[in-house]
Predict the 3D structure of the following.
Amino acid sequence: MSDDRLIFTPDDVDLSRSPLRRSLDAETYVLGAFNPGLTRLPGGNLLAMVRVAEALCEPVVDGHARAIRWTPDGYVLDRYPLDAIEMDDPRTFRLRGRAPVQAGLTSLSWLLPVELTGDGRSVVKVHYDKAVEPSASFMALGLEDARISLIGGAWYMTACAVSDERHCSALYRSVNGLDYRCEGIVLDHQNKDMCLFEGKVGGKFMALTRPLGEIYFAPPPDSPFVGGPAIHLAQSPDTLHWKPLDSPGLRARAGTSTNLRMGGGTPPLLTPQGWLTLYHGVERRDAIGAYRTFWALLDRDDPTRVLRQEDDAPLLEEKPALTEPLADRRYLPSPVVFTTGIADAGDTYIVASGESDLACRISHLPKARFA
């Protein structure tokens, strides 16, 4: 059993201090404050890097859907005729008749550093002055789902950068865990879940990746795996130049509740048993699917060797009671818990997740659970 609580919700965001306020006149609201990257700061407190999805209060005006976009001169609104789009996921829309599929977002996301107590049970300070917002055209439609790894005395943060140019992974670096500088694009393809290992393997940086594509080839009929998005691995001499490993990493196995897709969740931590990583698996259900958290152990010297893959029963599932006070804000029909951070706390791990794409959840899990 886990000890769970919501630590940060949409109601905790002060939109008067949003970076969008500097140039966007349209009224907005917080669609979600969720999917927090997690790390421990030098003084012992934790930092949750919260994804704030900011959406328009009037998304439709004069027969047009509107979307927010960053430019070097400030944030602007784009307009799309309603008869030219379709939507079955409240987070996105698609342009009709386009091949390949061309999508738009109903919100723009930026990253908000929220400092927590060392046990993760309360908020110490919200650092609006250190918010991470789009700063280049390759992230003009937002930054999503930070993951933070402490490696060799420096903090490395990856985020998914979204734009009409590309859908890529951006890297940020910090020398104090709180102030982050953008190092640019590190994976130039659609990849939503890049997680750097918290330590080197064979003298090289390692990362989990999850490349996406328009088509996946079917495995042999007798394969223990199912086709689709999977977790791969890559290595780098400097965190800027990455080579995918030839061997596969974690794949969705037949007969489990990860039959739609899977992807990295937490940066792998080195334990006496191997590299521990928590990941999400998605079960087919309506247009979105049910997201749950599972875990795996990878060999410390060769992480392509999967020592354990616990995908029979989820480690974490959505807890409706947590978001019941926010029921009027809920917009996803499917159960979703999306784990994005982990910190060592002695006999327990502190795990950070997005709950229902709405709020930040902190779970305390005993280490004995992973024995």
